[in-house]
Amino acid sequence: MALTLPTVPARLARPWPWPRAWPRPALPAAGALLRRPSWLAAATVLLVCVPTGEKDVTAAVHVTAADLASLALVALTALDLLRGRAQGLGRAACLVFAGVVCAAAAATVTSIDPATSLTGFVRLVQIFVLVPASVICALRDRTDLRLVLGAFVLAALIEGGVGAEQYLTGTGASYTGQPIRAVGTFGALDIMAMSGVVSFGLLAALALALAARRGGWARRALFAAAAFLAFPLAVSFSRGSWIATAVGAVALLLRADARLALRSAVLALAAAVVLVGGLGAGGGGVTERLSSIGSVSGGNEDHSVSDRYDLWATARAIWADHPVSGAGPKSFQQLRDSHAPLRLSSGSDAADSTIGFEREPLLSPHNMYFLVLSEQGLVGMVAYGALFLALLLGCLRRAGDAAPAAIGLLGWVLVDFLYADIGGTTTVLTSVILGVAAWWALPSAEARG
Question: Residue 68 to residues 12, 48, 72, 74, 75: CA-CA distances in angstroms?
Answer without folding.
Answer: 55, 11, 6, 10, 10
